[in-house]
Amino acid sequence: MPERLAIITGANSGVGLAVARRLFEDAASEQRLDELRVCLACRSRSKAETAKKELEAEFGPDIRIDLIEMDVSRPTSVYRAVETIRSKYKYVDWLFLNAGIMPVSRVNWSAFWPPYPSHVLQALVDGGQLLECVDELTEDGLQAIFATNVFGHFLLVKGLEDFLANQGQPAHVIWTSSATALKQPFDIDDIQHVEGNDPYGSSKYAIDLLSLALNEKLNKRNIYSHVVCPGLIMTNMTLRILPGWIWYLLYPVAFLMRLINGSWTYFPYCGAEALVWLAKQAPEGLNHSAKYHSRCTPFGRSYVETTKNVLSQDIALKLYEKLNQLAGKFET
Fold this sequence. Notes:
Helix content: 40-55%
Order of helices and strands: EHEHEHEEHEHEHEHHHHHEEH
Distance between the termini: 39 Å
Structural class: alpha/beta
Strand content: 15-25%
């Protein structure tokens, strides 16, 4: 069998590292470790090295694992990574666009007030308006959340779109989105969310739109795109919001919430369920308008739930063109 290649952004921790671990785990169970190569695309070389050593300790020193330095918030870094990928590999089977930031400034406790049951439930299921993020400008003059979560990944796909499916087999682009990807905070005339107050929710809605547009643009090249919500999990992004001991006290709440819809996946390993499940599917046969959710039963068994993503194809294509125009300002 030919080697299968997965590139994972933001792979040194959290869901990204869990995806790498689960890909190797599945390959080991099928005795196909020699048929899998995983590339960890990370901003920090030292953290990527630590993740690589962790995986080698678990699956053996001979696993095929590479590192590429890439800061998705910096177009120049993405362009360098594109050149490295194109020179190092012949094709890509799975491109997991997972890197992201959620710089939370505070918990918005007013989201629980007035204490209508529906408000409280929504906040507990998907975060609702519970967290307030603070944004800033990058050195390139971009809004940091937009640059990291959306634009850098767009540049990566754009730089590889004539390369991804070179082996004649479908290439699968899998985005880490969120249940907080709501229409309300997104404005097609303010795609970087300069004026709004929910840059994270806007960026995740933009991801859903962009995935839809990519299918329109790239399916004819045998490239397919889908979005995933990993659920509510404990990662580096969420652990610093509240003291660690509070998160552990919340674990019984996770058990109760899973009785409702299983969105509290809690651990990155469980949050990676939908991403790894998608990697096992024939992408051309999937619903391109759906969102795939990682879920857990009360006792921790992972499963995947599919919901319909109600999106405007026209707005999606407008976003694609706006990103394309913005990309032109950074191309050399």
